[in-house]
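Weekly modeling sync, notes
Attendees: S.R. (lead), two postdocs, one rotation student

Agenda item 3: backlog of single-chain predictions. S.R. asked that every request posted to the team notebook include the full sequence so nobody has to chase files. The rotation student volunteered to paste the first one in as an example of the format we agreed on. Action items at the bottom.

Example entry:
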Amino acid sequence: MVFSMLSQSMFAALSSRQAPVRIKSLGCSAVRACSMHASTTPVEQRNVTPIALPPRKHLAIVTCMDARINPFKQLGFEEGDAHIIRNAGGVARDALRSIIVSQRLLGTREIAVYHHTGCGAVLFTSPSLRELIKDSDPGNQQVADQVDSIDFMEFNDLEKSVRDDVKFLQECPLIMKGTKITGWIHYVETGEAKQIVQVSLAVV
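Predicted structure, as returned to the notebook:
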């Protein structure tokens, strides 16, 4: 019952908010071309792992896993310009491990927190999601113990969530001094993005 009610409410809310989505299919000729290229590549070349390169704009974007969000297209970037770090809600705390790798090993010096309207993270609470998971496997104490230890980091105020994430990064001692941090809201209804906050960490 919990699963049914939660799923229906989330689907209804998201369906009513999202803008029309146009899907562009990959043509069969492109698929064949990729297959032909792969089959003719020498074995010794295929086995070489490419070395990761720093993003050209030295930028890491923390955003939601929502399938409607495409920061490259929506912000006018090209592949290779920025790191895209995704999780449910685009929460900075959840992205910290990846941000550290991005900064310390791959040279990013700017972080953009990029949230969006119609986000599923405003449609549930951690307790309700925990109950949903427990109800799907009743009597499994291991499942109950593990899910009770998880903070799903939901929020109920979109603009506040952006400001809170920027503040978290601003105060986090693991973020490099001199980092520029911006906060954005993407409006899925119009396709527009609005910057709402910007800070820079002082260089000591």
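Discussion: group reviewed the output briefly. The first strand starts at residue 59 and ends at 64.
Action items: rotation student to repeat for the remaining queue; S.R. to check formatting next week.
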